[in-house]
Design a protein that fits this description.
By secondary structure, the protein is an all-alpha fold. The chain has one domain. It is 68% helix and 0% strand. The longest helix has 16 residues. The N and C termini lie close together (10 Å). The relative contact order is 0.26.
């Protein structure tokens, strides 16, 4: 189970260069609803393909997912 992230944890990820701030914030504010780390990563790749997210956005979200798995 992933833990919810606080806005203070998400903000540095969404402020990274070339990321879609709204994509990072929206995905990571609900990351705890993924049952497993693998499910969250699969969801990320599905959403990235659907919405055409760039590599920087995917990398930032992936970092947030891993953070939620550790918290």
């Amino acid at each position: 189970m992933l833990k919810p992230l606080k806005l203070e944890q998400i903000a540095p990820l969404s402020a990274r260069k070339d990321v879609s701030q709204i994509a990072v914030e929206n995905f990571l504010m609900t990351v705890q609803y993924n049952e497993t780390l693998d499910a969250a990563l699969e969801n990320l790749m599905r959403d990235a393909a659907s919405y055409g997210w760039n590599a920087a956005t995917i990398k930032a979200i992936r970092a947030g997912i891993h953070l939620a798995a550790k918290v």
